[in-house]
Amino acid sequence: MAAGFVGFEIPWRKDVFSDAPQAGSAEKFGTLGINFRARKAIDEEEWTVAMAALSCEIPSRSVGPPKE
Amino acid sequence: MSDVLREQEPALDVNVLRHAIQEEYDEVASHPHKGFHFHTGRPLACMLEYQDEWLEGIPESCIESFAGTGNPFSLGEISSGERVVDVGCGAGIDSLIAAKKVGPDGRVVGVDMTPSMLKKARRAAGEAELKNVEFREGYAEALPVHDGWADVLISNGVLNLMPDKAAALEEMSRVLKPGGRLQIGDILVQKAVPESAKRKIDLWTG
Question: What is the pLDDT of residues B77-114, one digit of tens each?
Fold first, then answer.
């Protein structure tokens, strides 16, 4: 998600380069054709909610000595 | 490679990259049957699941220079009366399909940086008698379109050619209305591309 877009999704991917007339130098990186969609957030509130859904909490770890 | 050596490598020159991309796509416009490292034309449209009815009435001179990597129209319906921007429109196939979909009450603006592609696109629009589409010269990072103008932004095989993808996405967001849709065909790489490789122009163009 970037630039205020929400609902990012890649519903389709396919090898669209095989058997092309010339070999491509990017082939070794496993290039695939894709379709992706997203939507510009309607307002700041929708963007804020979407960003909050992306964040995750890292559980805090005890740094003290183990209890006996 | 050490960090010291890495820092000594020349950074990617955006103008050199743009020139190389223009040269490549000028060839696709001028000699579409030459044979490239990607598929082109009607066979490519078939591979990407373009429907025959979408291509009805679109001049073959336009279809033959098609070089997309996906199918923006499979991602959601484009409706009558909508405004569409086609970023990196090339010879105009997707712009003309969109123009047919939005009808006389809608508008389509195709943007490309390669003059020979724009020439083909304008001629094709004239031959197809589509008056609701226009083609403008420009870069994806500075689209010649007003803020919040578009309902839908489409692009096909173009974002991967832009060194500053974040800037291009910011610009796409700027021209879309709130709630506007992004429907893009592009490329995904399954293996990480080393930073040193990203500086090689031939990797971007071929």
Answer: 999 999 999 999 999 999 999 999 999 999 999 999 99
Burial environment of residue B204 by CB neighbours within 10 A (0 to 12, 13 to 18, 19 or more) = buried
| Average pLDDT of every residue of chain A | 82
Q: Which residue of B has its CA nearest to A45?
A: B178
Residue B15 in contact with partner chain A when CB distance is under 8 A: no
Distance CA A42, CA B144 (A): 23
B43 in reach of chain A (CB within 8 A): no
**How far apart are the C-alpha atoms of B99 and B95, rounded to whole Å?**
6
Amino acid in the structure at residue A63 = V
SS3 B19: helix
From residue B112, alpha-carbon distances to B14, B31, B78 in Å are: 16, 18, 21
Q: Which residues pair with A37 in a beta bridge?
A: A9, B183
Query: B178-203, pLDDT tens digit by residue?
Result: 999 999 999 998 888 877 777 777 77
Q: Which two tokens stand for residue B141?
A: 């990072």
- Pairing label, strands A31-40, B176-189: antiparallel
